[in-house]
Amino acid sequence: MKVLVAPDKFKGSLSASEVADRLAEGLATAGVDSYRMPLADGGDGSVDAAVAAGFVPHPVTVAGAGGTPTYGRIAVAHGTAVVEVANTCGLTTLPSGRPLPLDASSLGMGQAISQAMRYRPRRLVLALGGSAGTDGGMGLLAALGYTFADARGNRLRGCGRSLGRVHTIDSSRAAKLTGVEIVVAGDVTNPLLGPDGAAAVYGPQKGATDDEVRFLEAGLNNLVRAFARSGYPEATTAAATAGAGSAGGIGFAALLLGAEIVSGADYFLDLLGFDHHLPGCELVITGEGSIDEQTPNGKLPTVVARRSRPVPVVAVAGRSILPQRRWHAAGFTDVHTLGDYTDRDTADDPDLTRQLLTRIGRQIGRAAAYGPEVVGDDRWSSARN
Questions:
Q1: Which of 94, 116, 138, 157 is the most buried (most CB within 10 A)?
Q2: 13-45 confidence digits (pLDDT tens)
Q3: What pLDDT, on the 0 to 100 scale, is given for residue 372?
Q4: Helices (H), the chain
């Protein structure tokens, strides 16, 4: 039988490639062949997924979220370049992991885009998950040649702390992206401003206190007004657009560059050729770190299930709080979690996660090859670790 293994990453534990490899290894021990297709939804791991699908990786050296040099990479193939926030100026690039809610910058993302342009792409795919700051995309635009100045003409650094001081914006020396299609692939629908905006919703996740959230919100409002009086009348409309609040407002900056914001899961399935590998499959295995009440609302495993119909889909997760009665509606014939096989905490134990994924792959393979009524189900068995 032909099985397509198409998971997302287990965030904080294993990459999508590692998850796919371990599930495939388990399937092989059950005598089942599989095709591995690590996926992404526009968040962190998007470059890795593109590379696994055949894109060519290119190293980049950029400024991390705190300004220190960071070594990331982009992926390029067939006129498309994939650039992500996470490995350029995301949370993982913060010095010692210490949050910098006011000082983290998106400069590194802009520098990565500049380096991607050396390969003359016709399309730029921006993956915005895992950002560390809330700067409205100031840093990104500064890297592309935009200049931000206060009322006295002093040049400003692109970060949340500077937002409230921006008075004028000069793009006369900015890089020209004419003829390049820019796509923001993600699942964030928040606008830039307001109670559902970048500062209010995501600021606290990046270490911002209540006072800092209010400071950032006021600064983002000021940034929009500064763009409007600097020759960007579309700034107000862009700020209100769904997705403008993604990555601390990088979505807003991308819109000003002419970007289109699309569903990350569907876009990456198309980009990586999911539909090409589906014909002839008798089973699809997908998954991510957590399956919960939000999973049916367009998260990658559910999109995989929808795109796979009528092929049965089994989901694998680190944990699941989605009731079994909702599995079918989400498109899953079964859900396996690491917690079904061990009482130990796997969140910070990649080695145990790898072992259990191999075991789950074997269990799924045996059930697929011989039928669950023949092999039984070793979840919650005496063999648990």
A1: 138
A2: 899 999 999 999 999 999 999 999 999 999 889
A3: 67
A4: 16-29, 46-52, 86-89, 107-116, 138-143, 210-229, 235-239, 250-256, 264-271, 274-277, 300-308, 327-330, 350-370, 372-375
All residues at 6 or more sequence positions from 16 whose CB lies less than 8 Å from its CB, including other chains: 7, 8, 9, 38, 39, 40, 45, 48, 49, 52
- Give pLDDT < 70 ranges for the chain: 372-376, 378-385
Identify any residues that bridge with 34 across adjacent strands, giving them in sequence order.
Answer: 3
For residues 340, 342, 343, 348, the Cα torsion angle rounded to the nearest 10 degrees is -110
3-state secondary structure of 158: coil
CA gap 60, 88 in Å, rounded:
8
* Residue for token pair 């992206």: 177
The per-residue pLDDT for 43 is: 87
Q: Which amino acid is at 161?
A: R
pTM for this prediction: 0.92
C-alpha distances in angstroms, 195 versus 130, 170, 203, 256, 274?
Answer: 21, 30, 11, 22, 37
User: Before 310, cis peptide (omega within 30)?
Assistant: yes
Question: Buried b / exposed e across 116-139, counting CB within 10 Å, b at 16+?
Answer: bbeeebeebbbbbbbbbbbbbbbb
- State the residue for tokens 């929009």: 224
pLDDT recorded at residue 376: 63
What pLDDT score does 187 carry?
82
Q: Give the up-direction half-sphere exposure of residue 198: CA atoms within 13 A in the CB hemisphere.
A: 36
Token readout for 286 is 């997908």
* Helices then strands, each counted (H, E), the chain: 14, 13
Residue 6 confidence (pLDDT): 98
CA 300, chain centre distance (Å): 10
DSSP secondary structure of 307-370: HHTTS-EEEEEEEE-S-GGGHHHHT-SEEEEGGGT-SS--TT-HHHHHHHHHHHHHHHHHHHHH
* Angle CA 143–236–205, to nearest 5: 65
